[in-house]
Amino acid sequence: MNDSTIAVVGGTGALGQPVVRRLLEEGYAARLLIRNEEKARQMWGTRVSHVVGDVESDEAVRRAVAGASGVHISLSGGANPESRERIEHRGTARIAQCAREEGWAGSPISPACTSATPQPCRGPTEGSMALKRRFARAVCPTRFSGRHTSWTPSHDRSGEAAQWSSGPSRIRCTWVAATDFAAMVARSFAGGHEVDGSFHVHGPEGLTMHTALSTYCELLSPGTQVATMPLFMMRAINRLFMGGKLSRELEIVRLLNEIGEVGDSQPTSIVFGEPKTTLRAWCLARRDEQRGITERHARLGRSERR
Asked: Could you tell me the domains of the chain?
């Protein structure tokens, strides 16, 4: 148990929620910078404090980080490159700058980043990644980088993620459970070890996208077929019929096709522990959870009919 306060920016998102939950379990107090106060209250009740505002406001950011012993950043600017630059990259820089102005000296700042690529920037996603890395190197002592920090509830929305797979099947990626990632973030705020630098986060197993989605469907969406199509065709569908919703994901697939997964995760495992949750284990736990909810609803319905 400790009395340290950690500021969390993005604490209502798919990655931010597990981080906040783990921090509370470890005995930290959490202070969230939020835009939607009602959503935060429904999600967290009185377990966290919050500051209403966003990362484009110096005043809101300063209030969020004031007196905190560390900050975790888990931002998403969506598919629009300009929005990503404004929210994720310049927002991260603003948070770190305000923290410095508050007199922080070596306090942990742990943004979740997409991992570095050795290739030159040739597109909007790659350019924004490079910008984010420059900001991170300049202002953030501890940086977690991973191409696929996944297996969060976002994969369950309308079943969309479980119905398509693009890119060649030979590319193997490692996938990280959000709860494992959250545990590593919490350890970064504990004393007793040096945490300056970038830490690549890789999951416990390498799976192709097709294998991963097939496993997901087998366990959580029986009967759903995984269709594989060329990347150029998926890009056309995304542009013509999906309003660009998958632009960012498809750009990451393109990068993976070109350079694969990069970075050495061994130093990360030594300092922060090793992610151990496999996709199959995650799916089975999720299935048990869903069955439990269904059974509780059924019991409640029977009680009401009596």
From this structure: 5-305 (3.40.50.720)
